Amino acid sequence: MEKKSTFYSHFLAIGSLAGTIIGLGMFGIPYVAMKSGIWLVLVYILILGLITALLHAMYLEVTLRTKETHRLPGYAEIYLGKKWKHFSFFFGMIGAWGSLLIYTIVGGEFINILVGPIFENSVFWFGIVFFILAGYMVARPFRDIGKVEAVCTALIVIAVFWLLIKGIFYGHISYDNFISINWNNWFLPYGVILFAMGGFSMIPSLENILDKEIKKGERIHFGKIALWGTLIPMIVYIIFAIAVLGITGVNTSEEALAGLQNIFGDGLVKIAALIGFFALFTSFIAIGNDLRKNFFDDYKIPD
């Protein structure tokens, strides 16, 4: 019974971290793969992904070895000084609110792609719906957040594999799209992939998600959680980039969807939009929860 409980707790934690990492950045990877070459992108994903996994593990180690519960500003105050707490909070808050705004807008666009023809196109109101749904989950307990993140991550993985399988078995993928490497754009994938690999906002919450198991004295492999929680997005990004680039080739658009739509119409685009919805939903929850806990854990403002 304890093995089953430990497996479930690891599943929640890994799914939560992976779901946080997989976000808007994923949709820019096929475009940079088209510009610089899929092989360069694979190297970037491998190197930056492993470095990020190490950083996730290091940050998790900090949270475990610090008795008090904090977020990044709180840890900055403890180990670097008070001025770094305010510095970290200020810039972190700007980045978090900016990300939530972007996720709300793009999330509304994804919903519009999925159901717009039924309910008449209204991206603004779909964005409000996205914000309400994700905001409701941010207000939920950590355990509930972990369950939603894990389920959404599983759905993303299934949808991405389905996109690849559909492309292969229906003959949509052209292997000629994977041959060339453009060394003039060798540095182009760096920023996109680095942005797509970050999951630091979820790291302090992993301890909260696993709180019951920790109190019971169950053995939790935090290093494996950090590793697998980062490896899963790496695999998803590789498959997504191969599928989209293989299908659209030189017509790959900056956000991946337009290129698919130009070639195959709405059917395949709806699959990609579904992937995007779940990806943004999980990232919104993680960032929103981290922002909320910044006020509660570090500045002691009532939750």
Structure description:
- Helices cover 78% and strands 0% of the residues.
- It has 13 helices and no strands.
Termini separation comes to 35 Å
Percent helix among the residues?
A: over 70%
Please count the helical segments: 13
Uncertain stretches of 5 or more adjacent residues: none
Strand content: under 5%
Q: What number is the mean pLDDT?
A: 87
Global Rg: 20 Å
N to C succession of SSEs: HHHHHHHHHHHHH
**Structure summary, number of beta strands:** 0
Biggest sheet overview:
none
Based on CA inertia axes, which overall geometry fits? globular
Task: Briefly note the structural class of the backbone.
Answer: mainly alpha
What is this structure, in a nutshell?
It contains 13 helices and no strands.
Tags for this model:
13 helices, mainly alpha, 0% strand, 303 residues, globular
Describe the secondary structure blueprint for this structure.
Layout: H1 2-21, H2 29-36, H3 38-65, H4 72-80, H5 82-119, H6 123-138, H7 142-169, H8 189-197, H9 203-209, H10 211-216, H11 222-248, H12 257-264, H13 266-298
